[in-house]
Amino acid sequence: MAIRFGICKDFDMMDFVAKAGFDYIEPAFRTLVNLSDEEFENIKAKSNELNLKCEAFNLFAPHSTPSLRFEDIAPNIDEFKGLVYKGMARAKELGAEILVIGCGWLRKVPEEMDREHALEETAKTFRVVADIAAEYGITIVAEPLNTTETNFINTIKDGSDFIEYCKHPSIQGLVDFYHTYRNHESLEEIRENMGKVVHTHFARPNEDRCYPLEEDIPMLKEWSKILKDAGYDARLSSECRTREGANEQEEIIRTLKMIRECFA
What's the domain range around 192? Predict the structure, then answer.
């Protein structure tokens, strides 16, 4: 099976994403949870009309979530579970198979907190979410984020270790090539830790996190080789910013053409 190409955009971009030729769209889970029943039904109808599934979701945490540590969620655990159940049921109706949990600001470990304690508490929350996700056939993925965004689960090796710690079949890995660039992770480090990766994100290898340029093609091809060597054949989502003064739709169309050529 060939890699499927998607883009991290919310529901208001569905028409354009379908017209541009993406295989799927990756919206925000917390947006999905906050939709009224009428709004959700309209989006479901639009998804069916466009034949565009929401095969993955990101931006997991509902706005009321205080952190991703279970001790902070526990006082309102019924409300938290209720929101997760609501979101998972809706996500499944829209074709979801993957839920990305990044939320670096919510998993950041305070200086005074023991990191082993933070690890244990965060893993508890992931397992709670994974138990619910499993009921809907959805896999959650722990997203490593670069050190400017959080201080917990940064490298792809960190992500692999965290998944091993959680020991839950519905918790798997993600590699975001932009974050590996910001962390100065070598191609070999990425290659060595692809075993648990079931979903991928990318932006150009540059601090601006924009859509790629021609000069980025050599690195895109290096990333492509890593995926091919690992036998990866799932999804690759563009998660890029539009550079100042550029036309977003033109940037997106150009990027899809580029990645189809580089990752074919």
Answer: 4-262
- Cα 191 to Cα 240: distance, rounded to the nearest angstrom: 23
In whole angstroms, what is the distance from residue 201 CA to residue 87 CA? Answer: 22
The tokens describing 136, both together, are 């809907």
Only one residue has tokens 């889970």, namely 29
Annotate 36-97 with three-state secondary structure.
CHHHHHHHHHHHHHHCCECCEEECCCCCCCCCCCHHHHHHHHHHHHHHHHHHHHHHHHCCCC
Q: Where are the alpha helices (DSSP H) in 74-174?
A: 77-93, 104-107, 115-135, 156-166
Nearest to 199 by CA among 222, 177, 168: 177
| Distance from C-alpha of 141 to C-alpha of 19, rounded to nearest angstrom | 28
Contact criterion met (CB below 8 Å) for 23 and 6: yes
pLDDT at 191 over 80: yes
All residues at 6 or more sequence positions from 163 whose CB lies less than 8 Å from its CB, including other chains? 142, 171, 172, 173, 196
Write the CATH number for 9.
3.20.20.150
Contact criterion met (CB below 8 Å) for 144 and 177: no
Backbone torsions φ then ψ of 238, nearest 5 degrees: -75, 125
- What letter does residue 109 receive in the DSSP assignment? P
Dist. CA 153–CA 172, nearest whole Å: 13
Residue type for position 159: G
With a CB cutoff of 8 Å and minimum separation 6, the contacts of 203 are 177, 178, 209, 210, 211, 212, 238, 239, 240, 241
pLDDT at 39 over 60: yes
State the total domains in the chain.
1
- The band of 1, judged by pLDDT with boundaries at 50, 70 and 90, is low
